[in-house]
Amino acid sequence: MSVTEDAARPVPSPTVGFVSLGCPKALTDSELILTRLAAEGYRTSKTFEGADLVIVNTCGFIDAAVQESLDTIGEALSANGRVIVTGCLGAKAGEGGGNLVRQVHPKVLAVTGPHATQEVMDAVHAHVPKPHDPFVDLVPPHGVKLTPRHYAYLKISEGCNHRCTFCIIPSMRGNLVSRPVGDVLAEARALFDAGVRELLVVSQDTSAYGVDVKYRTGFFDGRPVRTRMHELCEQLAMLAEPHGAWVRLHYVYPYPHVDELLPLLASGRVLPYLDVPFQHSHPAVLKRMKRPASGEHNLERIEAWRRACPQLVVRSTFIAGFPGETDEEHEHLLQFLREAEIDRAGCFAYSPVAGAAANELPGALPDALREERRARVMAVAEAVSAQRLARRVGSTLQVLVDQAPALGRRGAAGRSYADAPEIDGTVKLLPPTKASTRIQVGEFVRARVVAADGHDLIAEPI
Ligand code: SF4
Fold first, then answer.
1. Shortest CA distance to 85 belongs to which of 129, 51, 125, 116?
2. For 229-286, what is each residue's pLDDT tens digit?
């Protein structure tokens, strides 16, 4: 047979042995996994011998079912050796709190709980690569991204449980639906593997992640992980670390449990940067806006955050001229910006959105006054920001390079941990003093800040 004929010979699809135990809910989980396997081109079989690996969907209800599941896993290990365990028994703790399946059968490849199609498929892909599909495989494993290669947005949930009176997002996108934590982490890992150096976590309400599923325990790489912001951030930090990559949090509402994140931010494993859309500071305005966490003492909270993490950068957005906003309420906002030392702020003049409840509120302000107040807020915000930036002169920062024409020989532009892409300032890098130094987009360089310039810093690479 010629080489050409050999290459043209179809490669047999990998085979996955499958055993489904347990109740009808487990059966539907099995169906979902089998559907995905078939859709991706895997063959399935009911026997262990000859399969490339075996999946056992287990039951953990009564003792007899637990034993049957453990025995089946044992048989699959002896007959085949490559076994992925899913289902209720996978979520069961053994003695001392560890995973029961792993305690009894430490050689299994991966263990997940029930309703974990994606985690099971991730484990299958890790051990038996997906058959080649000339159409689907044109799409890279991390999907199609519209951002530059070195940073990417990671959406962790859709929708929102709040009903802010100026906003119509919940009526368009519905209540909060958190993505399974295993899916989110698998996407993050694929992005880092693909060269992403900065991951921007986004949603409508990042601190509420997992509320809708009661912080259910999901699985990633066979390990249990709660669907909760703190645990998610810990795991993202672990995934980012080997790549030296950044994790940045957006849309974090100041709920009390956000305080738990501060040690992680202070350690730098997640960037000490929080994007907190306060929208206003005065309790009466926040109440009229029906803002999340409107009862919190935001100034005290920010002060406590800064004590726990002195390098913390806070970005926020505000609305000026909301219906009924009095002079005193407006002054309260200006004072809040000064006292809270908000590093980066944007401000919009209130403008009615069709369908928003705020349109019915009394006390609409004239357009000119809303605009005048917006300008005052921005003037204060910029003065505060300039003072904060001036303090950085003389310091050394790690800068992620966004632009480097001529390999940086004429200078480059990037951002420090204090600057999110598109919305914050930049760090303008001076041409390197050594002619041999090359600066490339997507790499980190260290630079000494020599001046502040409006929203930006000027720094020399070192
Ligand atoms: S503005 Fe309010 S209602 Fe709209 S998405 Fe944000 S938190 Fe939800």
1. 116
2. 999 999 999 999 999 999 999 999 988 889 999 999 999 999 999 999 999 999 999 9
pLDDT tens digits for range 99-157: 899 999 999 999 998 878 888 988 998 888 877 665 555 556 566 667 788 999 999 99
Substitution candidate for ligand 1 out of 157, 158, 162 with most atoms within 8 A of CB: 162
Neighbouring residues of 322: CB distance < 8 A, sequence distance ≥ 6: 166, 280, 285, 288, 289, 350, 358
CA 277 – ligand 1 centroid, Å: 10
Q: Comparing C-alpha atoms, which of 303, 372, 290, 369 is closest to residue 336?
A: 303
Identify residue 378 by its one-letter amino acid code: M
**CB 321, CB 373: distance < 8 Å:** yes
Q: How far apart are CA 180 and CA 220, in angstroms?
A: 10
Of ligand 1's atoms, which has the minimum distance to the CA of residue 279?
1
Q: Is 170 in the pocket of ligand 1 (CB under 6 A)?
A: yes
The C-alpha atoms of residue 117 and residue 28 are separated, in whole angstroms, by 11
Nearest residue to 157 via CA among 87, 90, 211: 211
Contact 157/184 with Cβ under 8 angstroms?
no
Output the six-digit token pair for 88: 């209720």
**Residue nearest atom 4 of ligand 1, based on CA coordinates:** 167
For 145, phi and psi rounded to 5 degrees? -115, 145
457 beta partners: 427, 452
Please indicate whether residue 280, judged by its CB atom, sits closer than 6 Å to ligand 1: no
pTM of the model: 0.73
Longest dimension (CA), the chain: 88
Output DSSP code: residue 272: S
Q: Spell out the residues 6+ positions from residue 406 whose beta carbon is closer than 8 angstroms to its own.
A: none
Distance (angstroms) between ligand 1 centre and the Cα of 21 equals: 43
The tokens for 308 are 């726990």
Counting ligand 1 atoms within 8 A of each CB, the residue from 157, 171, 172, 205 with the most, and so the one to mutate, is 205
Residue 217 Cα, ligand 1 centroid: separation in angstroms?
Answer: 26
Does residue 66 line the site of ligand 1, with CB under 6 A? no
- Looking at residue 177, the DSSP 8-state letter turns out to be E
DSSP-derived letter for residue 52 is: S
- In ligand 1, which atom is closest to the CA atom of 166? 1
Place of tokens 């999946």: 55
C-alpha angle 375/377/380, rounded to 5°?
110
Termini Cα distance of the chain:
60
Question: At residue 337, what are phi and psi to the nearest 5 degrees?
Answer: -60, -40
Q: Whole-angstrom Cα distance, residue 350 to residue 319?
A: 6
CA–centroid distance, residue 63 to ligand 1 (Å):
47
